[in-house]
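TL;DR need structure tokens for one chain.
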Amino acid sequence: MFKTFAVAALALSVSTAVYAADAVEQIPEAPMAVETSAFTWTGAYVGIQGGAGWLNGDFSVPGASASQDFDGGMVGGFVGYNWQFGNGFVAGVEGDFDYNWNEESFGGIDIGTDWSGAVRGRIGYAFDRVMVYGAGGWAITNGYVEGLGVDESETFNGWTVGAGVDFAVTDNMFIRGEYRYNDFGDKDIGGLNVDLDQHVVKAGIAVKF
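>> reply
TL;DR here they are.
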């Protein structure tokens, strides 16, 4: 009887050990952490933009001068590249080109601009998907005088400075709001000295690569 009891006890202990081994093998693995990459502003982008412009013109001939405000609008596109650094600062370069319409008539003479462009350097700071920036550089526009036997235009070269906010809606798309001041300098057109400067408010949307 003792022998039978010993055999039963041995069999029970073996089956218990086997079950324990199976239980250990069936312990589920801990889920692995999935590492998500942080958003970065580094990369090329291209976009479209539009807005309103308030152009001021100073006109002079020997012995007389006058000033006139031109309210107009603009629509165009921009392209650029950003580099984001580990401390959150962002540097970039950007170019844009707009149809920039501003025109007024004086006694049968039309004076205005019809296009403008700029190449600017940008410095900003990124709060994850929000970037505030300042920008400045070279600006250009085409001004014209038409009427009473005059049909002339000149390309004005000057400078631009401004600031704005870019917001990344997705990893590959952002929207923008921006203010800019353009000083296009002065040119002589048809015997009239024309000096142009402009305040601009723009909104845009871009694809980031």
